[in-house]
Design goal:
By secondary structure, the chain is α/β, with parallel strands linked by helices. The protein is built from 4 helices and 6 strands. InterPro entries: SpoIIAA-like_sf.
Length: about 140
């Protein structure tokens, strides 16, 4: 179910614990912040999240978008992140951003890259039991 749209990007959720960022076109800071606010509202009270970031339609991201990624979030930090799609350049941008996020937020979120959404989902679902057993 889609719960937010910002520019060409959307945020979808699937109960009980899956949040999907479908990033499209040029992603900027206000767009990413809007999606993150929608995630925070949806995830209130959840002990963990599986996050799928689909970058297959993302063309670029601004410095402000990368900065927005490193801003403290609201809600659980107990999550795993699967990034699906994208070319090597886009994957490199996302990888550098995720490294900065982990460094600046002291997060130990597990992040993996996948060529397609099906593989990303399979890995995410396999991580669920470990997340459920962890405390935030």
């Amino acid at each position: 179910m889609q719960i937010a749209r910002a520019g060409e990007s959307v945020l979808e959720v699937e109960e009980p614990d899956l949040v999907i960022y479908r990033l499209g076109g040029g992603v900027d800071g206000p767009h990413l912040r809007a999606l993150r606010r929608a995630e925070a509202e949806w995830s209130v009270g959840k002990t963990h999240l599986l996050a799928l970031v689909d970058i297959s339609r993302m063309l670029s991201s601004t410095m402000d978008a990368r900065r927005a990624s490193t801003e403290p979030g609201v809600g659980t930090r107990n999550r795993v992140i699967a990034v699906a799609g994208g070319n090597r350049y886009t994957q490199m941008l996302v990888d550098l951003t995720m490294r900065a996020v982990r460094l600046l937020t002291h997060s130990d979120a597990n992040v993996r890259f996948f060529g397609d959404e099906a593989s990303a989902r399979a890995w995410l679902y396999a991580q669920r039991a470990d997340l459920v057993s962890k405390k935030d």
